[in-house]
């Protein structure tokens, strides 16, 4: 049986050498300065980590928390809730998180335009610190309503951070590091999930006395970010294009790059600014109406929808049942689940390494193809597991293979892609659209999958296989490679796809750009 200490020891042996090699490689090759590295780590740990942690935090202590709900109701009314009412109340508790994520996605544009990227992250910690205190006090206050409201608030925090962190890091990073740093938020999401699984072991905090502490721990990363992030630069693009402060933008670039000669990057940002001057900033409504942004918008909707509708939540839903059918003792399933989380972390670290080597497009194609294959095989394995004794082991293999495939492409790349294919004026609106699709898809799967599972049983994964197939076909036909290209060069590629070759009166982001020369 895997013990918590062994898991941490395994993670230390695997992660620390990989992180060291990654940092050393990029310091030597691609100007990863200490300032940029720490800004990346504190923004991802303080925000993305919380997202992953809160996805998983309520899973382990769910039965204990339901009992708390029922006991509290009994203390108030003298009666216990029936099974239906308790299940409904718990479903509301769980679903408040993705609903809050959707609300948070709608706040992204106003927050980043008013406070900046860094300022939005700092402001967003209100939605973490306050609910952490409320959840920590919920048992003492004998109030499950505090937990429900807090789940909504941490969902808002996750909705904002899941969009703002990749936007902030994408605008801080030089183009030859943009992919690697853009995957870091997803890495910290997976670390957050794993940490929640580890502290959520029944021998740790998933017990009658520890669960309020388990829920309240989400506030620690927020406090650390509030203390450290103010000392690091705001996005130079935000400072120059939106605040019109070239001196502050230059100083931010110099601090991030570690040298004074930042004229080339300043010129690139100024060219982007000139290309957008006549337009101003683009609302979500206008984003849907603009022909020059048509394929960019369709692409982020397909990628963010495909990410959540490809079956990742269903795989985790089925995982415990698969492990039990393979003979894993019910008390040991929690350790196997944590091991799966560790695989997710390791493969996301691998993606950080290879995203600048293999490119975004290849990783998306590879990841969705692996997920497609895993969904097909797991359907067959689940259908035959009662007839063939060794089929449950095939199912376990498929779970692990699926997790690997999703960690390689579908999980980390779509948010990075939004940063790269939109210019400054439309980027906040694009993140609002992409984030809304992400959270609505997440909410939809959580809502309807139990009914699909009842109706189709093991054949539920055929639906996800079809979605993976359609997403893979779309990527192969439409999505271009963005590795190593500037934001303007990427927009030139899409200008050709959108059949925008002249300077129109309403050409929005493409004014004064040269004609696209290559796909």
Percent of residues in β-strands: under 5%
H/E topology pattern: HHHHHHHHHHHHHHHHHHHHHH
Rg from alpha-carbon coordinates: 23 Å
Strand elements, count = 0
Quickly give the structural class. mainly alpha
Low-pLDDT parts are 23-30, 502-519
Mean pLDDT metric: 85
Tell me the distance between the termini: 52 Å
Main sheet? none
Work out the helix count: 22
Helix content range: over 70%
Shape: globular
Question: What key phrases describe this protein's structure?
Answer:
22 helices; 519 residues; mainly alpha; 0% strand; disordered C terminus
Topology diagram in text:
Elements: H1 4-30, H2 34-56, H3 62-77, H4 83-124, H5 126-141, H6 144-172, H7 178-199, H8 211-216, H9 219-228, H10 236-242, H11 246-257, H12 263-276, H13 284-289, H14 294-309, H15 312-325, H16 333-358, H17 360-384, H18 391-408, H19 413-421, H20 427-456, H21 460-478, H22 487-497
